[in-house]
Amino acid sequence: MFRLISAFLLLLFSHDLMTQTVKNEDLVYDNNIQTVLLHHVSNQLNPPVIRLGNNDHLRLSFDDFSDETYLFRYTIVHCTSDWETSDLEQQQYLEGYYENEITDYAFSRNAIPPYIHYNLVFPTSDMKILLSGNYILKVYVDTPDDGNVVLTRRFFVVEQLIRVKATIPYYPKNLLYTRKKQQIDLTLITPDLFNAEPQERFNVSIRQNGRWDNMKSGLKPNSIMMNQLDYDYPDGIVFDGGNEFRNFDMKSFWYQSMYIKRIISDENGYNVILHTDYPNTRKPYERIDDINGQKLIKARTEQSTQVEGEYAWVDFWLKYDKISNADIYILGALNDWRLDKKSRMTYDSKYRQYHGDLFLKQGYYDYMYAVVPKGKTKGDVTLIEGDHWETDNDYTIYVYYREKVPEYDRLVGYKKMNSFKDRTE
Predict the structure, then answer these.
(1) Claim: this prediction has a pTM higher than 0.85
(2) Average pLDDT of span 324-342
């Protein structure tokens, strides 16, 4: 209970605009800001990707636990293929205004603690995007100086100029990976426009589900023929198969759904305690329908999720022996796929279990557990979740081409594939 009261008091303070270093990542820099979503307007589960020159739009939403409204502003920053700020000036990739205001907001109803919900749909008619590539949406108070920024989010603008062919074979090139790893066979079909210096100018990144920690980046073709680039590496492009995600349904606090052990409610809010999790490494693979690590923010049918959705501290318990020289993290969209302090679990010697907690809004959540050795940044899910070739994983392939004048990374190819649908025997 002390945790609930202390956390809520912290959230209710005004924005603390202290010195900070803003990064080109999916980050929240203010404790008052919760449940940041950025997605295509068509569906909450669709990625933040729009097509250049089309009437596509993205939706940003977030909750602010301040006790008063703020005039939030936003701007858009063009990035390189590896998410460094590009050398382009804003007038080269934006038409119209270079910053704008978020004016769509509403106060929560009957929620404890109360919050203010903000919405933004962009690009707008007075701020148009002219070039493809990686982008950062930066939201701030007053000015875009680092100390005023409250959140940053990545998104993509695509001009589909090449064809991406990708499959996952049953037998990998390295037979040690058989029935465990997932190998991606990749070929790019390019028009004559991109025949100049393909080895130097093309750059491919591949993400598994929504993860950034295990992304393959900087991939170069090793076989070049007329209008065809092959990525035919000796061991292939290989990802851990992992396992299906764990999940819990928290769309309602009126009943305990599967995987929820207990719901505690009082005048300070809610505390949801999940059933203890156990390692899956010794279990045979079992196909389970999941949303591949995503989250779906959704309250009961009779509630308006945006302003009536409630929050809870969710307790995670994992029965696992203490690991030396490594940490265990909760991983998924529920913490923006970040292996950080908030998602790091602590070992409880009394119960001989790992424990973690996250402050989450009503909804449906996928997650899994990742082990990160000390000094490393990449999580290993196989140690707790297992490793199976059959696992249903989403893969996203981004193809960049380095333009010379002006010099920037165009996003000329984009493909989403699924390890279940796109596998070959």
Answers:
(1) yes
(2) 97
